[in-house]
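Subject: for your reference before the review

Hello V.,

The reviewers asked for a structural picture of the protein, and I figured it would be easier to keep everything in one thread rather than splitting it across files. Below is the amino acid sequence we used in the manuscript, unchanged from the supplementary table.
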Amino acid sequence: MKALLFTCMLVPWLVAASSRRSDQDSQLIPGSLPDRELNGYFNDHLKSRRARSVVSVADEPDDTAIEAGGDGSDLPTCLLCVCLTGSVYCEEVSPDMTAVPTLPKETAYLYARFNKIKKINTKDFADIVTLKRIDLSGNMISEIEDGAFAKLTLLEELSLAENRLVKLPMLPSKLISFNANYNLLKTKGVKANAFKKMAKLINLYLADNQLEAVPYIPDSVRILHLQNNNITEVNVNTFCRGNDTYYLRPSLSEVRMDGNPVVLSKYPDSFVCMKVLPVGRYR
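And here is what came back from the structure prediction:
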């Protein structure tokens, strides 16, 4: 009789426990997406990671190993990089990436930072007119052919920071942000009209180069970084217009010129049109 009572009491408990386990098993971790929605970044990212780490026998090229001294240019881009819809991430690629990879059509965002890319050719972006952002920071780029960005009419952000550039190519006119910090740029390597036609340019970063003078700065620029160059002087036309005492630059809200030889206090008339003084040496 006691055994029967125990069994009758035990069965409902087991059913409830099983139900609780089933409910728990059916729940997702808080903040996660339902299985049917895991077709975006997460799944694509995992697939790309697996593809880069292990290439199946069926997908292997005829030469199963890259020859000594070769690089990753022989492999399809999306085996080396993470390719999402409209975005390509090729950061610290192994084996070494020494050239801009062949991009999927309709790529809008390219992040190819911290590789060993040495040169940008006109053909690299010739067929990818949908590009809006290119980040090639931390490479070994020493040369960019003049027409390399000519067809990129939608390009808004371009970063070439931490490379080995001694001169700038012709840049797209619709850029909003341009970063060439930490290069080897000298004034003779920056054309007089390099930024003149960029009516939408807001952020201009040219710090840690070898510039001897301030290039032409469009009226649209808000943030200008020129620190740690070799700039020795400024004049009334550097930021303002010597022949127009009513000219103002209300957009220019941050100018860094620290780390340059120029003593800014010697040129008080050079900043009358600005609402802020440049950061730099004044004595």
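For the response letter, the relevant points are probably these. The two ends are 102 Å apart (CA to CA). Helices lie at 2-26, 41-53, 77-80.

Happy to draft the paragraph if you're swamped.

O.
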